[in-house]
């Protein structure tokens, strides 16, 4: 079953509602954005979520060995490891960063008690190697990009997972716009990844059935007038969880 990330949460009530509805990840945005979380909001959300964990407060991951560097095996093993951790500590808490100093990202991640880091800027492989937590790396899919272009950006051994999002203009995600799902479907034949961009309760089932992503990521699609809508979160998760794929 495709995993689900609800991103851009900023209050405990909505985060807990997303968790209770079945979200596997919640995303807290530390990058410059209208959804950027404050330190106090972050503390309140993380404390509320971790208080519900029954097997310890911090997630653990048993990822692949560095020597295993084929894309299918590397990202496949990491996908399994993250999925197993999500089953134990759901929802995993993901911090979203873009173009911030590496030491600052690590400091925030440790202080906040994050489980995973998502990098949505122009961070290179050397930067990723400095991260203390497993990294979800965003590839911004622009017009005329092919699945081979995406494969070139999805470097095995650098990040734990790949996140594909719309790359229009200078977008860093959260635009509510979709990219070509046909390209994403080709990527899914070789590499598990998280799909983002333009997903709503109306189209999420079709997206999952066409693309077969390992996970999906939704922010704008569960908002009303720019505010997270708990009813929309529940409806989207029901629609997404209702799709069962043969793998």
Q: Nutshell version of this structure?
A:
The chain has helices at residues 12-21, 39-50, 71-89, 102-112, 125-129, 147-153, 181-188, 204-211, 230-241, and strands at 3-7, 25-29, 92-97, 116-119, 135-141, 161-166, 194-196, 215-218, 223-224, 227-228.
Describe the protein's architecture and organization.
The protein is of the alpha/beta class. It has one domain (3-241): Aldolase class I (TIM Barrel, Alpha-Beta Barrel). It contains nine helices and ten strands. The protein has an eight-stranded parallel β-barrel with strand order 1-2-3-4-5-6-7-8. Strands 9-10 form a two-stranded antiparallel ribbon. β9 (223-224) and β10 (227-228) form a beta hairpin. α6 (147-153) packs across α7.
Q: What distance lies between the first and last C-alpha atoms, to the nearest angstrom?
A: 9 Å
At the first level of CATH, the class is Alpha Beta
Fraction of helical residues: 25-40%
CATH architecture assignment: Alpha-Beta Barrel
**Average pLDDT, to the nearest integer?**
91
The SS-based structural class is alpha/beta
CATH superfamily caption: Aldolase class I
Number of strands: 10
Please give the order of strands in the largest beta sheet: 1-2-3-4-5-6-7-8
Give short descriptive properties of this protein.
9 helices; globular
Topology:
Blueprint: E1 3-7, H1 12-21, E2 25-29, H2 39-50, H3 71-89, E3 92-97, H4 102-112, E4 116-119, H5 125-129, E5 135-141, H6 147-153, E6 161-166, H7 181-188, E7 194-196, H8 204-211, E8 215-218, E9 223-224, E10 227-228, H9 230-241
Helix pairs in contact: 1-2, 1-9, 6-7
